[in-house]
Please model this.
Amino acid sequence: MFVSYQDNGQVVISAGKLRAIKLILTIGIFVSISFAAVSSRLFSVIRFESIIHEFDPWFNFRATKYLVNNSYYDFLNWFDDKTWYPLGRVTGGTLYPGLMVTSSVIHGMLKACGLPIDIRNICVLLAPAFSSLTALAMFLLTMEVTNSSEAIVSRKTKLSSAFLSAIFMGITPGYISRSVAGSYDNEAIAITILMVTFYLWVKSVKLGSVFYSALTSVFYFYMVSAWGGYVFITNLIPLHVFVLLLMGRFDYKIYTSYTTWYILGTLMSMQIPFVGFLPIRSNDHMSSLGVFGLLQLVLLANYFKYTLSPEKYSRLMILFGVLVTALGVAALFTATKLGLIAPWTGRFYSLWDTSYAKIHIPIIASVSEHQPTPWSAFFFDLNFLIWLFPVGVWFCFQELTNEAIFIIIYSVLASYFAGVMVRLMLTLAPVVCVCGAITVGKLFDNYLTFKEFLSEQADESEKPSESKAKSTKTNWVNFISKALVSVSFIFYLFFYVYHCTWVTSNAYSSPSVVLASRNPDGSQLLIDDYREAYYWLRMNTAEDAKVMSWWDYGYQIGGMADRTTFVDNNTWNNTHIATVGKAMSVDERKAEVIMRRLGVDYILVIFGGLIGYSGDDINKFLWMVRISEGIWPEEVNERTYFTDRGEYRVDDGATDAMKNSLMYKLSFYRFGDVFGTNDAMDRVRNQRLSSSYARSIHLDTVEEVFTSENWIVRLYKLKPEDNLGRDLITVGENERKAAGKKSKRLSSKKPNLDVRV
Amino acid sequence: MKLSLWLLAVGITLCQAFTPSSDWENKKYDKTLDLTKSYVKEKHIIEAVNVGSEPQDAYFFGIPSDLRPKVALLISTLQSQSQPTILETEPVVENSEDGFLSYYKITLPYPVAPKSSFSLQVTYAYTDSLTPIPQTAELGEKQTLYYQGVKTPASPYDTTSYRLRVIGLANAKEVPLSPGEDVSEEYQGRVENESLVYGPFKSTVFKKFSSIPLALAFEKQAPLPHVYNLKRDYWVSHWSDSLSLEEHYQFSNKAVKLAKGFSRVDWMSGRYSMKPNPAIVAIQIPLTPHISTKDVYYTDLVGNVSTSAFIKNDLILKPRFPIFGDWNYNFTVGWNHELKDFVREVEDKHVLAVPLLNGINDVTYEKVELSFLLPEGATFLDVQSPVNYDSLDVAPEFSYFDLASGHTRITLTFSNLVDEMKNLKVVVIYKYTVLDQFKKVFILAGYFFIALLAVFGFTKLDFSLK
Model:
């Protein structure tokens, strides 16, 4: 039998059996959490197909294919001449290789196990696979944080808190937004590594173990190789140590773990070509170096404390403190002045001043994920956890262990950053899950226990009758209040799951390459214009054809059309982007000069006016204008694209600068013909172009070569120069004049013919 | 065979064109030129009489030498009373540089005595012979195709009675060979029942080797689909009892090119996707009836194409964009069959018979690589093909859970095929016993066991520093 019954009615299970049950339950819960985490990320694969999403993942995918087909050293030395034409890109030295190496290693391992899975499927499913590992790491982190303290969560709820944090993390939309199947981006693996690193760090501070701090630095190295957000770790760990020092918590455990981590981690991170000497030169890394130095001084001071008399010691300390501060600040300033330390980057400034980018670096501000976070996004991405989060932080204050301080610092920093940039919500999500889980765990610890009530109910019969009534009453009140809280929180938990699934399914599962729509009969219709046009480019243009488009589509053209691009989502050269922006913003005559100089063969524009697709180039046009205005303020002026009344118009009332710009003409060329004799209707901007005006939009230097089924992608070819050396625009004008005369002549002759007949 | 080898030897040593002896005379020669498809078919019904002094057992059929590499298929049958018997036909290998004609040697079932006659039908198809003139046209303009051939019998024997019929043309007319020249006055044709007929010429004798060129121009509002390369992979699986087919097409259109860039608005307003026109808007693959076809997928290099449909027994693939002349479109299509519909067990061997092509209608193939992937552990014995293949290649290929020797990939390479050969069957004979089938499971289980053992051993190791 599994259990045995004693004479007094107690049930006895042997310890071994209990352990086995616990193990089975633990594994079962983990399997279910993994299943929930993975399956909620598969909406897009089931609804659409196994496809790489959005923009950056297309580059990562292309780079992974390069790595799989070539050796690792070829990959590091990869000079990509198919992007940034004619400059090219030193791709191997300007990317974080962690993601590509991870998937190629997985690919190789599976192949060795007799599973030659296509690299595309590995890339598509990498993020969901890592999300289940993230849940595991969250479990360990929460365990570690709550382990040494009874005040934060009691011993028996520790495990349930940890499990709750794992499932919260597994399905929180704040994390899913960056890790659905197909979203093959650095963040897909970086969040997992981030959590593992933090877990190992907390553990190594607790144990003072070289082994764990060395492991921390190994994972830190992995993080550096995978995502630019590693700077978050580089600053959070020193800050943690610094705060501990300020609190007078210095001990050899902290010293051992920090120095081990810093030295190993820095040396290893410098092995990544893209990072190189940044860890000792960039200002972003100075805090970790500073704390490293400070720790040595504190160690020295600690030594003096025990050898010197208290007066001498305090005098020495004051002198020492002043000297060190002065020297440190002076060294920092001189090093920056001499250029030994790299200046602060624009992205860094925009972290502190949200309007900085808008004024100084339009290219950073033009990315939607760099915008400040709206309030609703917090609820949208984190649901009820966002109001449990402060409670959890408050619980951490109950007993300020080293781990609790780490969580507090992490919450403060991540909350700030999440408020500055939408995409940094990703770093906030884990700590919110930890704090939320602590809160819910604590709540359930107090409210979901009915043991007392039940045992009192059982004891009731034995009690005398007068005290019976009273105790029963308080008992029931107690029970109802407990039940009320429990039921409401169970409802919130259900609601959380419902909300997460809803958000994932509706907001984060569109590949954005394929758009879903509905037929009149309700069946699904896929709008596949992007791939239609990219595939046309791939099949029907010369292999070395160069395609000019706005930088958003660079990676997709490289990945799907396999053609050379001028600018792409790796926005390393602002001037080059501004050049393309200028070619789009100025009139045809000037644009032709720029395009001939660049060596353009084809031009790709996105136009949503026919079906009402709002993410098109005319809506992005102002960024092109702004970015090129930043370089050529005397040639391009944003104001001239707005009407006198400040309206952004594309119809008959548009400004001349707008009407003459190449982008406008490429978008609306022959658009009027679709509507026959009616007025052409731009369905995105809800503006009406009069029929005669829409028909008068003409192009002389370029020729339409392809337009996709719903007109989303329009491709043009730059005409070859005239054989007779004439100006193409003049030729076009003459032709139009001649055609006009001809039609006039015909119409005037017509009555004569009629009379004759 | 011996004769042709001997001829080859003669050909090489003398470096001279082979000329058959003129022992035959074509008493009646009926030639039909069929231009309805995207390639050209010819049907020759010949009644020949032995004018030599000795019995003859071989008739040499001539075709213009420039056609020789374009011939996809040539079949000759004996026109007997009851049913036609296929005759052994083989090309004569010779130094064809200076010869106007190339020959196929048709071996007769019996020697034909002097003065007696027999009747023969030769059918052949050749590709790459229809070209649009002019090569470019505006969207919606009519397409005119140009064909150049031979008006006369083109036989190594004298012909006494001759007729040529050209079928499948709307309004064909003879055009000059090169601009400026006149159309030759000799042997004028006339339109009769929607076909162009020359002759019959009963009184004139067409001397052997006589050749009058024929140039035709005709309107045809249809594409000329062409496949540069087709890879057909048949995966045999006994465990799942399925035969999966995956086809990779490099598809193109040889019809008239667009004079200007493709204009979507003209395409939409002209409703060309509904009208017959030289662009390919849909690829139609007829599926074999009564054979289950499941799990059809249609993808290309950038992912799934959502526009495919079944209409009756046809699979209709709509390409991402209409394929105009000289445009390319690579795609992959695949599905599963039930294995029992294709494999028979004969004693301890398996005989797999699959069609050479799965037929897109009216298409020409430049190169076809037909592969069979036999399950791991199977022994390949033999392959038989009704059409001559260029090469046969057997190599291992490692697929899922192939931990031993891998699948066996047998690749046959064919060149220059046409859609009409889709009913021909290629047969593969292999050996695959139940033991072989289970061997794989045991190997797999063994590896799992080793892996679990390794994990167990690893947990027992102690790495701690003490």
About this structure: Residues 1-15 of chain B have pLDDT under 50 and may be disordered. The first strand of chain B starts at residue 24 and ends at 34. The radius of gyration of chain B is 28 Å.
